[in-house]
Each structure stands twice: as structure tokens, then as C-alpha cells.
Amino acid sequence: MRARSEASTHMSYNGRVGAAREHVKLALRRALLTADLDLGRTPFVRRVAQTLASRGIDTVVDVGANVGQYAAMVRAAGFAGRIVSLEPLPDAFGRLSRRMRSDDDWTGHRVAAGAQPGRATIHVSANSYSSSLLPLTDLHLAADPASRTVRELEVEVVTITGLVEQEGIDPARALLKVDTQGFEAAVLDGADDLLDAFAAIQLELSWAELYTGQATGADLTERLERRGLDPWTWDAGISGADGRLLQSDTLFVRR
């Protein structure tokens, strides 16, 4: 009986340690993102920059820019082309705007992207970068409590087709990067036939339902493969306390 009790205590201790480690990892990741020093993603962004250079891609459409972490890291990795960022949250866009002032080839719009132009309600997370036009699931909240919704906000929505026309972007020389927290399928819907034209597309893929009604990573991968885009390189994102991969970033390139 005592042995069983000790074993139970040991398992409970291990569970607490595992949860504590995951909490520390997520806290560190948030701090690194804020400081533009997300070391876990830097090698991936370097590979992205190498791919852009090798394929003559000179424009990055940065959908879900937040405060500009991704664009800043792509710049640091050597990308010297044009960047067009989309970010609907006013606070995040304010920080993004301050960054863009020192870069003549980096512009932005305070909008979200979706299947149709109009207005929509975004669920604003405490950590900002988990904010989404879709509601959070309990699984996501358990993996990262800082993703909890703290308010809702109405934002403007544009389509990628409309943005490309407005900005005079040549999709054949552009990367469409989409990090919209589960809303990736709707963004692709708004790109319509341009999915057959973009030189590369980068998506944040979810391997479990982290936002209600989102498309799975497998579905989005199959969708892009049907449009002539193959997985090229990828990077692991967040994982659950049980070790299950929940999100990853994947770069797809034109076949």
C-alpha cells in the first residue's frame, strides 16, 4: 500500500513538473516574441529567407503581422524586398507602425483578411498574438492560459485578391504568409484563383482544434498541394503538456 502511495506521489510530482516546464517554456516564448529574439524560430526564418532568394521572390504579404515579429526576423535573415503587413488590432498595429517608419519598403494596413470584405468580430487574447476571428477551444486555453479572451473588437476585413490589386503585387514573385490563428482557410478563400499564382505560401497549421471550426493542418496541406504548392520547410510551434504537437509553421513553394 505504501509503495502504491509513493508511486502515485511520484507520478503526481512528475505531472506537476511537466506542467511547470510547459508553463516556463510558454512564458519564455512570449518574452522572446516581444523582444524579437524568438530563437526557436530563427533557423526556420533563415531557411525561408534563403528560399525567397533562390526563387526570386521579392515581396512578402504578411497576414497576421501582430507587432511585426515575423517581418523583422525575415529582414534580419537577409530579405531586402517589399513587405506588406496586415494587422487588425489597434495596439499591435501601433507598435507595428513604429517599426515600419524606419523601413521604406515596409508598409501596412490595420485590417484582417478573410473570405469576403466587410466587418467581423475578433476575439482579443491577453497575449495579443493568439487573437482570432474564431473562438478559442479549451485545448488551446489549457496549453497556453495567456491566450484567454479578454475582449471582443469589430475590425475591417479585406480579401487577398483585393489587397493584391490595390497594392499592385505580382503573386508570381510573392510569398503569402498567413498566421491568423485558425482563420487560415478563410484567408485562402479570399485569395481565390491567386492560389494558383503565388510563388510561395506559408501557413500556421494546427494539428488539433485550437479554434472552433478551424481547418486542420492536413486539410490545408492537401488544399495547397492541389494548387501546385508543396511543403518545403517547416518549424514546430506549441505543444501540449503531453508532448503532442499542436501547431507548426510550414512554407509551401510552387512545384
From TrEMBL:
It comes from Nocardioides currus. Gene3D superfamilies: Vaccinia Virus protein VP39. NCBIfam families: fkbM_fam (TIGR01444). Pfam families: Methyltransf_21 (PF05050). One of its GO terms (molecular function) is O-methyltransferase activity. It comes from the Bacteria. SUPFAM superfamilies: S-adenosyl-L-methionine-dependent methyltransferases. Residues 62-228 form the Methyltransferase FkbM domain. This is Methyltransferase FkbM domain-containing protein.
